[in-house]
Amino acid sequence: MKKFTKTEKSWALYDWGSSAYSIIITTAVFPLYYKAAATDAGVSLSDSTAYLGYTIAIFTFILAMIGPILGTIADYEGMKKKFFTAFFLLGTVSTAMLAFVPSDNWLLMLVCYIFAALGATGANLFYDAFIVDVATEKRMNRVSSFGYGLGYIGSTIPFIISIAIILLAQNGILPLSVTNASRVAFLITAVWWISFSIPMFKNVHQRYFIKREPNPVAQSFKRLGKTIKEIRQYRAIVLFLIAYFFYIDGVGTIIAMSTAYGTDLGLTSTSLLIVLFATQVVAAPFALLYGRLADRFTGKKMLYVGICVYIVVCIYAMFMETIGDFWVLAMLVASSQGGIQALSRSYFGKLVPKENSNEFFGFYNVFGKFAAIMGPILVAVTAQLTGDSRFGVFSLVILFIIGLIVLSRVPEPEPHDSVDEVALES
């Protein structure tokens, strides 16, 4: 396997920058910041967790609705980068704005979080679709995993800086309140994300596209309708998307609500931040390992491995009571979360027609985002009904099992590298 090309590195480096959002805003600092604000306002622990779940459901529903049509329009020459840029700006600006929301207004925090999440997840839709433009089919597993690996490594740097500022503020070493220290973390996230996205804008370009037509929006709706009518021609894609719908639901829900869940168990903010940092460090080499093993054993078999690990995670979560238990759970998640996401992306990239990659990745986004609606709501409702978040996490196991069964029916993608792809590799 040849070394990574400049284009592949530039594409993967976006993960290095944007993953700061994933760990600081989605997983670590913001959920703790929000939970503290909601608790101070008199909101119960289970209710604040539920409200976060409902918020995640709202923004994922919005993006799921607009994803396919935006993806179809983005298949036109030159449009993919424009849509990517628009969502990128929405995400980075909204993330920075979180630093200026009053600390006693937890509801406004969630509203601002919706726009930040819309931007981040929307940009990722087009970023994922760019994989067909930067890597040949035989390199997709390795390149996709390389992106996730860089993301985990890169995100640890702003994460360490943010944790240090928050802990120093907590101990009175820095002349900042914990609230203001958290706000600094939000600004660091936005700056980091923007800075390491520059190579993506400079060196990654849309290679596969459809020529512009008159009335592109109307034509895009027609193409989308045609794809839906002829969906039987894409049996492998449909089966994979159904499987993906179920198993990625559990993955995304566990990632998005892990800190809120740990808080409900009585774990301190400091302990949670340390565990999350360790998770990022461990996840990086495992993401790269999944890519290498996929080249040897196929991506599908490695997806089986990842799903089985998550089934164990859901079962183990029922018995989690101590910080030691949370460490075990976190390391299990770290061993597979990057690999399962990276290989899902590359597996799907091999299945779809390249000229229509954005349209199909729009469907990929729909199935992923609708799944992300169901998971958080399932956890939220179960947590409120039982008063125990553990039952919500355990209920996710059925989603992984269904995903595993459906995935077993998906055929392996047939290699069809073109002359153009071979040129891309060189």
TrEMBL record:
PROSITE patterns: MFS
Subcellular location: Cell membrane
Span of domain Major facilitator superfamily (MFS) profile: 236-426
Keywords: Membrane, Transmembrane, Transmembrane helix, Transport
GO cellular component assignments: plasma membrane
Entry GO MF terms: transmembrane transporter activity
The protein's name in its UniProt record: MFS transporter
